[in-house]
């Protein structure tokens, strides 16, 4: 599976299936076409940048927008 190719709805269904005990992590990952490691990370709550089931592909900005604009202005 290529990076970021899973769907948010599939992740929700996989999470629900594992939490209800209907299937294990490996089976849910295969059934719903989501990465097993990502599913496990969501289950244990270690997906720091994701909000619930949402995926984030781009990088997270360390600076607030106004600070970034001020810095750009200063550099230019």
From TrEMBL:
InterPro entries: Homeodomain-like_sf, HTH_Psq. It comes from the Eukaryota. It is found in: Nucleus. Residues 8-46 form the HTH psq-type domain. Its main location: nucleus. This is HTH psq-type domain-containing protein. It comes from Periplaneta americana (American cockroach).
């Amino acid at each position: 599976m290529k990076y970021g190719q899973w769907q948010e709805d599939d992740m929700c269904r996989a999470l629900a299936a594992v939490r209800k005990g209907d299937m294990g992590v490996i089976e849910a990952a295969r059934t719903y076409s989501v990465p097993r490691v990502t599913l496990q990370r969501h289950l244990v709550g270690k997906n720091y940048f994701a909000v619930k089931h949402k995926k984030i592909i781009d990088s997270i900005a360390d600076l607030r927008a106004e600070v970034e604009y001020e810095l750009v202005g200063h550099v230019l």
